[in-house]
Write a structure and sequence with these properties.
Length: 365
């Protein structure tokens, strides 16, 4: 077996498609994860917040090659140039349905099911010849794509339903948080006829992508990689602040609801104290940092890896420096790879790590 992918979500599928495009056969790759359907976790979360459009743009697709993107595919299917015109000015956002159909196509055409093996991996160790994964191996090349380390649940609201869990809406709803999920939930609850209170400590940032566009460019990444560890960590903390896109699609429904007395903002739950039967929705995202991921925490401790704050220190190509050399590779993809790519938890970030991993695997192929 040539390489192993630990994890079975979207980052794992992007990596698998990239390796297959690089010439590896399904029998040379093993995918070890808990979900045979690589979209299952993401799809459940998107459905829970009733998400209909992707925040990513045309480049946010899972195919190994950049072209054609989803805008091209939709334009051909519809016989309309509109998607191409929107993507030319970074205004194309594919539908969730379009993205999921694309993901299923990638899964089917790459042979994902031939390489997938159900497993909940607990331990990765460096050994002669590569790495063992729960004692199996060695694999010369391993990529860890373990995803977000669980939902963040605020201690002040023990009975709250998380936004990313399936739920309906009561007549009175308090939404804790101020990011994309929170903004979506404000509109969902208002559309369901509820009175809504947004509970947030600070005003959210308004930006089209969850990470500014400059961090997707070679020049922006070069500056990020050249910064000191302290500055890099500060940048990542700032980028983790809540944000959602600008525009009337978000603002107009809130203005109308505010004028009707159905929407208001509070900095604490005190404003809802007089409400009876209020439903609290925690739109608080995910737990953060490698310490909240048992597999990564164990790897750091066992091999005394260099860390800074809540991040594992990685080389710019998303590899773990002390465990990667000319003959073996340990790479990290997804949110845990932010030290290498600030937008690592996006599809573009997954492909950034996947392409670097492919270069190393195929160089020794």
């Amino acid at each position: 077996m040539r390489c192993a992918i630990v994890g079975s979500g979207l980052a794992a599928l992007a990596t698998y498609a990239t390796l297959r495009h690089g010439g590896l056969r399904p029998e040379e790759i093993v995918v070890l994860g808990t979900h045979e359907d690589p979209t299952e976790v993401w799809r459940t979360r998107a459905a829970s917040i009733r998400q209909t459009r992707m925040r990513s743009e045309s480049e946010g697709h899972l195919a190994a090659a950049s072209f054609p993107g989803l805008a091209v595919r939709e334009a051909l299917r519809r016989g309309s140039p509109a998607p191409l015109l929107r993507t030319a000015v970074n205004r194309y956002h594919p539908s969730v349905r379009e993205f999921l159909a694309h993901a299923e196509s990638v899964r089917r055409h790459t042979g994902w099911d031939r390489s997938f093996r159900p497993a909940r991996v607990e331990r990765v160790r460096a050994v002669d010849g590569g790495f063992t994964v729960d004692g199996e191996g060695p694999f010369p090349h391993v990529l860890l794509a373990t995803g977000h380390p669980g939902l963040a649940r605020p201690d002040d609201y023990p009975g709250a339903v998380h936004a990313y869990e399936p739920h309906e809406y009561a007549s009175k709803v308090a939404v804790v948080g101020a990011g994309m999920a929170a903004a979506t939930e404000w509109l969902n609850a208002l559309d369901a006829g509820a009175e809504v209170v947004s509970i947030r400590r600070r005003e959210p940032l308004r930006r089209p992508l969850n990470v500014p566009r400059r961090f997707f460019s070679k020049r922006g990444l070069a500056r990020f990689h050249a910064s000191t560890p302290e500055l890099r960590a500060a940048t990542l903390r700032e980028l983790s602040n809540a944000s959602y896109p600008p525009g009337a699609t978000w603002d107009e429904p809130l203005r109308r609801a505010e004028a009707e007395g159905r929407f208001r903002v509070e900095s604490s739950p005190n404003g809802t104290a007089s409400w009876n039967g209020v439903q609290v929705i925690a739109a608080t995202g995910f737990r953060r940092g490698f310490r909240n991921d048992p597999l990564l925490a164990d790897l750091v401790d066992a091999h005394e890896l260099t860390t800074h704050d809540r991040w594992i220190v990685l080389d710019p190509d998303s590899t773990v420096p002390v465990l990667t050399d000319a003959a073996r590779t340990l790479s990290v993809a997804g949110v845990a790879a932010q030290w290498a790519f600030p937008a690592a938890d996006t599809i573009a970030g997954a492909k950034y790590a996947a392409r670097a991993f492919k270069r190393r695997v195929c160089r020794t192929h």
